[in-house]
Prior knowledge:
The structure is a single chain. This protein is an alpha+beta fold. It is 45% helix and 14% strand. The longest helix has 15 residues, at 32-46. The radius of gyration is 14 Å and the shape is globular. It starts with 16 loop residues before the first helix and ends with a strand.
Amino acid sequence: LERVVVATLPTRDMTLIPAYLAYGGWNECPDPHVHVAALRRWRDHYGAELVGVENDRLNIRVARRPQTREEALALAREHYEFCSDCIFQGSETLANHAAQLMDSDWWFFWWD
């Protein structure tokens, strides 16, 4: 990126970052409280950690991938509800997205 901003926020809980930044609530991007809830769920189930925030994108690294096809498909549906572009403009189908979730430690969400 041409310009990068590093910020220090008054929390050790990375799930609160979208709330502190008032991130969301435009286009189809969920409101900040939805980001907080999703990040908490994914942190608890998959060891998800928010590692990058851009003006229209979140970068998340996970410690645990879904272990079964059924779990991956359920998670792909969650991702679709959270950010339909990751399917429509990315993997194209829930099945493809589920396969990617089982194969990668990185999740990307974007809203344009």
